[in-house]
Write a structure and sequence with these properties.
Blueprint lengths: L6 E4 L2 E4 L3 H9 L5 H9 L1 H14 L2 E2 L23 H10 L3 E6 L5 E5 L13 H16 L1 E3 L12 E3 L8 E3 L1 H5 L9 E3 L10 H8 L21 E5 L2 E11 L4 E9 L5 H18 L2 E4 L2
Parallel strand pairs: 12-13
Antiparallel strand pairs: 1-2, 3-5, 4-5, 6-8, 7-8, 9-10, 10-11, 11-12
Helix pairs in contact: 1-5
Length: 291
């Protein structure tokens, strides 16, 4: 990310830089909640301190920036500690003022002012243009989406579609529709349980016939696939769940189980295991467990 700048990080997610000009108009309107707006106004001097520190000394870790907040916000969910710097940095990132420029060796975020992180000379769009283009990009990524889904806001992008047995209004990407009869390549992907594709559960169920349940918050005795199991997507089908975890201490990818919804064909099994091998290589660790 920090080398070729093809991606940028926001709210813990990596986005292609081509999305940034479409997102910036909405980022500049943030925040929408009055309580956050009041906190930023009360801490305007703190806000300016953080920006000035980054501009003069950045890139910096959050811990290298003094907490000069006049008003502290409590963290009811325990997500934030008493230090207000991480909260302010995230607020400024959502406004497009600062950005994550790298990750440290310990995977901590390294921050800098946005003009030194984001590419220069990006196109600028009005709010209306940006919203329309964002909706089109979301639909291109989804292929088909509920028109009014809070997870994939596509509005009137694309064309109307009907999903048999569904009560929802759907929109489909014309390019995806044109490829509907093409042979699927069957590529294997392991989805993070928090992947955006999985957020709209009715869509996953009605389009892919996959009833996904995140078992992270279930008692161990009630888990079927594992604490943080990854859905396995093969082409356009969900075929199983991968229960695997990265053991950083021992530098291995530990595969606890590979669950199939229907018995894998030998070729499918080979593809899945090859993808696991590739994941371990990408992570730069060894592989233990099911082979």
């Amino acid at each position: 990310m920090e080398i070729d700048r093809l991606l940028f990080e926001l709210d813990g997610r990596f986005q292609p830089v081509s999305m940034l000009p479409l997102m910036l108009p909405g980022m500049r309107r943030w925040p929408r909640h009055e309580s956050t707006r009041q906190w930023l106004e009360a801490n305007d001097a703190f806000r300016r301190d953080v920006i000035a520190r980054l501009r003069a000394e950045g890139p910096l870790l959050a811990e290298q920036i003094p907490d000069t907040a006049a008003v502290a916000r409590d963290s009811a969910d325990g997500w934030y500690g008493p230090n207000q710097v991480p909260r302010m940095l995230e607020a400024l990132a959502r406004q497009g003022v600062v950005a994550v420029t790298a990750r440290s060796a310990g995977r901590r975020r390294v921050w800098d002012v946005a003009e030194r992180v984001f590419p220069a000379g990006m196109p600028e769009y009005s709010d209306e243009e940006a919203e329309r283009m964002l909706a089109e990009r979301r639909l291109q990524a989804a292929g088909i989406a509920k028109q009014n889904s809070p997870w994939t806001c596509v509005r009137d992008a694309g064309e109307p579609a009907r999903v048999e047995g569904s009560k929802w209004k759907w929109r489909v990407d014309p390019e995806a529709l044109a490829r509907v009869d093409d042979e699927v390549d069957g590529r294997v992907a392991f989805l993070n349980p928090y992947d955006g594709m999985l957020m709209d559960r009715p869509r996953i169920s009605e389009v892919f016939e996959f009833d996904y349940v995140l078992e992270q918050f279930k008692p161990k005795s009630q888990r079927r696939y594992g604490y943080f199991a990854h859905p396995i997507l093969m082409g356009d089908r969900f075929v199983g769940m991968l229960d695997a975890e990265l053991d950083r201490k021992n530098e291995v990818l530990r595969v606890n189980a590979i669950h199939d919804f229907l018995p894998f064909e030998p070729e499918e099994d080979d593809m899945i295991r090859a993808e696991i091998d590739e994941l371990a290589r990408w992570l730069g660790v060894g592989l233990v467990g099911e082979r």
